[in-house]
Amino acid sequence: MERIGFIGLGIMGLPMAKNLLSAGFPLCVYDLNQSAVDTLVSCGAEACASPADVAAKSDRVVITMLPDSPHVKEVVTGENGILKGCKSGQVIVDMSSIAPMVSRELGALLAEKGVEMIDAPVSGGQEKAEKGTLAIMCGGKENIFESVKGILERIGASVALVGELGAGQITKLVNQMIVGVNIAVIAEGMALAQKAGVDPQKVFAAIRRGLAGSQCMEDKAPRMFEAKYDPGFRINLHIKDLWNVLETSRSLKNSVPLSAQVLEMMVALANDGFETKDHAALGLYYEKLNNVRLTTNN
Ligand code: NAD
Fold it and tell me: Nearest to residue 91, comparing CAs of 125, 49, 138, 157?
């Protein structure tokens, strides 16, 4: 089987890389965090000295799973970046959630060396990464997508091509807008119920099977009732995604008033020390705003 490169072995990248190893792909890996590299080496991967080294040792495909645009830029264009070690015919699959404009810029730079790029951000957290059941939304050329689809299917339950390079990132931003606004209005509604003397948990039970019900409500409302704010999906990652929404939107002269408002709420939460809590901590924002407790029954 072809040897795959993997760069970025964090909460998501580590289990994704492990799943590729389990599927039988030889892996060569790199991360700034040596202990993550050591973990993968103990599972059978080969450690590399730099992103350039990963690209040089990979047969065709190099996957990146990094925090944000600057990290992906550094890994691709940095002193010992992928561009220094890659060869014509290779494919970079960036699975990080970053700004779509950056995906397109990097795709153009890689194309100068005959290297293709697919943007392939994911939805689903650590648990789905471990189970190999992520939803993967891709952008890029159809024939290149088809050539890497079989690999992505080993880490995701659904793998969809949405459009050209950058379309995967746009899809991810839309996902994050809908999730963020959804959680915020769940907290807003439950806080109103509490203020009005109506038990939020009974409100939840009454409406969850109706039109207002959602996967967000199923996961996040109980967290608010139990003050269970361990991540999950961290506030600081959602802030990063919503900044990317605003930047992308501004560049298109598009308006996103709801996303902008939720970004403000999340920044306020981060300033209150909750940046590493689950985004369901929007419940805490509304508790403070309205001086109510979502955890207290009437
Ligand atoms: P993380 O911070 O846990 O992992 C990122 C890894 O990248 C770290 O191991 C870090 O050492 C490494 N790294 C950073 N800069 C590097 C560099 N220059 N060279 C080599 N390695 C470098 O992040 P994560 O939670 O795994 O998230 C990765 C991406 O997936 C993010 O874009 C995030 O928004 C997205 N995502 C996360 C989740 C989630 O639930 N955590 C869910 C969906 C999507």
Answer: 138
pLDDT tens across 261-284, in order? 999 999 999 999 999 999 999 999
Q: Which two tokens stand for residue 80?
A: 């010992």
207-220 burial: b if 16+ Cβ within 10 Å, else e: eeeeeeebebbebb
pLDDT by residue (tens digit) across 201-219? 999 999 999 999 999 999 9
Ligand 1 pocket member 15 (CB < 6 A): no
Instruction: Give one DSSP letter per residue of 209-273, joined into a string.
Output: TSTT--HHHHHHHHHHHHT--S-SSBHHHHHHHHHHHHHHHHHTT---HHHHHHHHHHHHHIIII
Q: Measure 209 CA to ligand 1 centroid, in angstroms.
A: 35
Instruction: State the average pLDDT over residues 101-112.
Output: 97
Give residue 96 CA to ligand 1 midpoint distance, Å: 7
Residue nearest to atom 31 of ligand 1 (CA): 67
Please name the residues in contact with 147: beta carbons below 8 A apart, sequence gap of 6 or more: 91
Q: What is the mean pLDDT of the chain?
A: 97
Mutate to test the pocket of ligand 1, among 7, 9, 12 (most ligand atoms within 8 A of CB): 12
- How far apart are the CA of 108 and the centre of ligand 1, in A? 23
Looking at ligand 1, which residue's alpha carbon is closest to its atom 34? 97
Give catalytic status of residue 141 as yes or no: no
Model confidence pTM above 0.90: yes
Confirm or reject: Cβ of 126 under 6 Å from ligand 1. yes
Helices assigned H by DSSP within the chain = 13-22, 34-42, 51-57, 69-77, 82-85, 100-111, 126-131, 142-152, 167-195, 200-207, 215-226, 235-251, 257-269, 282-290
Q: 7 alpha carbon to ligand 1 midpoint, in Å?
A: 10
pLDDT at 296 exceeding the cut of 70: no
Q: Is 137 in the pocket of ligand 1 (CB under 6 A)?
A: no
